[in-house]
Amino acid sequence: MSERASSRPALAHLFWWFMFAQGGVIAAILLPVHILFQGILGPLGIVKVAEPSDLSLLGNPIVKLYLLVLIAIPFFHFAHRLRYLLVDFGVHAAKSIPAQVIFYGGAVAVMLATIYVLLTTAPLSF
Amino acid sequence: MPANWWTRRGHYFWYVVREFTSLPLAIWLLWFLLQIYSANSYQTLSKQFLPAFAVFSIFCLPFALYHSWTFLSLAGTIIHLKLLDRPVSSRVIVATQFAAWIGASVVIGFLLVWLAR
């Protein structure tokens, strides 16, 4: 019985590790250029760049989907890294189930908040 | 383990820096989301914080680059591929990751400028 239970695929692990890896890839490949252009060059007036508050762009479904991926998915990576950083600093409570719920639940909450913001800020336009 | 273990060796310190990059990047993304959220009242709310956002972004950029450098460099260790029954060298895998990063950055940078016109 126990052998059968242990041979089942660990789908939950598969999901969280997949999200961790994808979050790391998206943060690595997409984030620096957004920070450079929309965080530094645009706000300082060095280059005119698309603003995150541009309603005409925000209505585009492809832009909405891109922003959802850009903003929400890295939080699954961040949640894991910050939780284990706390463990490394001796906060053993960060290994507990409530801590996992807080960190990974926080990532899910950010994803839901991002979906809400993207759907309510600008109506879909094709 | 002593509380200052991470200051005792260089690679411990840089490991902690690598893990810590998550915090400023998470805050940057939340601030970015807040700018989208306040799009309808952008003139009165977010625009007055743009200089602070620029300063925070200057602080975040080295962390973002360090995350990219370390994460993409690890790809050679994590990813194992075979091409025509021969293993692809880890150097080639890492090089393709960095090429993808540079290519994506050029395309996105161009789009961000082009879409602003």
Describe this structure in words.
The complex is a heterodimer of chains A (126) and B (117). With 126 residues, chain A is mainly alpha-helical. Chain A has a domain at 14-26 and 53-121: 3 helical TM bundles of succinate and fumarate reductases (Up-down Bundle), CATH 1.20.1300.10. In chain A, 73% of the residues lie in helices and 0% in strands. Chain A is built from 6 helices and no strands. Chain A has helices spanning 2-6, 11-41, 55-58, 61-72, 74-88, 97-121. In chain A, helix 4 (61-72) runs antiparallel to helix 6 (97-121). Chain A starts with a helix and ends in a 5-residue tail after the last helix. Chain B is mostly helical and 117 residues long. In chain B, strand 1 and strand 2 (86-87) form a beta hairpin. Chain B starts with 9 loop residues before the first helix and ends with a helix. Chain B has a domain at 1-60. Chain B has 4 helices and 2 strands, in the order H-H-H-E-E-H. The chains are: A mainly alpha (126), B mainly alpha (117). The interface between A and B is large, with 51 and 50 residues.
Overall body shape of chain A:
globular
Helix content of chain A: over 70%
> Any idea what the shape of chain B is?
flat
State mean pLDDT of chain B (0 to 100 scale): 90
